[in-house]
Amino acid sequence: MPEHIALMVNGSALSVKRGTSVAAAIMIAGSPCRTSVSGEPRAPLCGMGICFECRAIVNGLPHCRTCQMLCEPGMEICCQ
Amino acid sequence: MNRSYDAVVIGAGIVGAACACELAHEGLRVAIVERDLIGGGATAAGMGHIVVMDDSPAQLALTRYSQSLWNELRPSLPSNVEYDRCGTLWIAADEEEMNEVRRKHALYANANVPTEILDGHALIEAEPNLRKPLAGALLVPSDAVLYPPCAATYLTTCAEQNGAALLLGKTVVAAGQGKVSLNDRTIITAKYIVHATGAAAVSLLPDLPIKKRKGHLLITDRYPDFVRHQLVELGYLKSAHSVTSDSVAFNVQPRRTGQLLIGSSRQYGAEDSAIDHGILESMLKRACEYLPNLGALSTIRAWIGFRAATPDKLPLIGPTEDPTVFLATGHEGLGITTSLATARLLVDSILTRQPAIPVEPYLPARFVRETAHA
Question: Which of A37, A55, A61 sits opposite B296 (nearest CB)?
Fold first, then answer.
């Protein structure tokens, strides 16, 4: 099994270690997960699926709690 | 402490707020008594549609009149009321329901409400997330949605700007014969007392023919453009007409925020304010039958509310046997739509003005007569 996973974050290729959460991949890419209604950048706070700050678009579906998802090969992740 | 007003409105839901606004606008000295929050009861629990409905000629007359009043008020509404003229699509699943589309189209044309018939292709173009195939739909472009608690707050503020006093956190323990007694032992005297407390009206007036009809709603996270119109299945009419059994029907609204508000359910004899998960599940299954991709969306919250239902599905608006007591309740699922017309008709009655539409179908006396003849 390969040690690294190739995926896309905001249209750019990224390689992460197997077992990396999607939230961590977004942080590695240096981006906030989403922009709030009032225009503020947002990133994970609780890291355990409670605060909803880590929401992002994963494979086209908005509002995914990225701290609760592991990276998979070919995943397309976008900030929202 | 004792006080005196021309009129006391009990309840600052959207109906009470509209009545207070109209009374104060006509120069009466008004007090509004609200035990909790402005628009915090059925007003906050409901969907907030401004729709024309045709269960009966009287319902059509009232909803159409009230929608025209909302259209007049619309330029004055603050943005937090989130008034959105998204239109309603009455969805026909099959040819039998398309007959109902054509019947409604003709009926609305007679009432000067412009509508448009969509075939299956036009419907999918208008709402790509609906299941395919569907027979078609009736588009009612003049229908709108809004956020009811903010609308009630706006109407209350208008009343206050015209001199009305807002008594928040006070409970009315007795009202009649020109006197309103509060839980803090205040006695207010008034020429007119308006009961606008929805399903709670029976706590002060136990003989009113009002029953609670429980409903569930659920709101999603923001998915802008997932649906573009208020969507209602034509089967909704069968569901809403049933006055005995529990029922669910597909009704989804797009909100200004991009959120989807999902309904609806109707239950009699369910006084428990907890969510009934069986009903909620049936309601969501029904919604997913029409919007197959709905299941992938995230929900923020589900809640319940109690509609104030009358036996003939029309509200109670107008005078009672006590010449100081007036009713503005029993609006079931149409209180947001019909609040403004209710206020106008009520004030017409108090000031003995000529109303814009016949008031007889809504007079509380219609049930007194029924009892006398029984």
Answer: A61
Give tens-digit pLDDT for B246-275.
899 999 999 999 999 999 999 988 889 999
> How sure is the predictor about B282, in pLDDT bands with cuts at 50, 70 and 90?
very high
- Determine whether the interchain pair A62/B296 forms a contact, defined as Cβ–Cβ distance below 8 Å: no
Number of domains in chain A: 1
SS3 of residue B249 by DSSP: strand
- CB environment B109-130: b (16+ within 10 A), e (fewer): eeeebebeebebeebbebbebb
Which structural domain range is residue A67 located in?
Answer: 4-78
Please report, for the domain that includes residue A42, its CATH number.
3.10.20.440
pLDDT at position B369, please? 59
Q: Most B CBs within 10 Å: which of A38, A63, A64, A65, as the mutation test of the B interface?
A: A63
**Chain A within 8 Å of B219 (Cβ-Cβ)?**
no
Q: Over the stretch B185-236, which tens digit does the pLDDT of each residue have?
A: 999 999 999 999 999 999 999 999 999 999 999 999 999 999 999 999 998 6
User: What ipTM describes this predicted complex?
Assistant: 0.78
Residue B223 touches partner A, C-beta closer than 8 Å: yes
Per the document, the length of chain B is 374
Give contacts of B297 with chain A, Cβ < 8 Å: 63
Q: Do A62 and B222 touch (CB under 8 A)?
A: yes
pTM for the complete prediction?
0.92
On average, the pLDDT of chain A sits at 95
Going edge to edge, which strands form the sheet with A55-58? A12-17, A4-9, A76-78, A55-58, A61-65
CA distances from A16 to A1, A26, A63 (A): 14, 10, 22
For residue A38, the distance in angstroms to the closest alpha carbon of chain B comes to: 12
Q: Measured between beta carbons, which residues in chain A are less than 8 angstroms from residue B82?
A: none
Tell me the domains of chain B and their CATH numbers: 2-47+148-209+312-373 (3.50.50.60), 85-142+211-309 (3.30.9.10)
DSSP A80: -
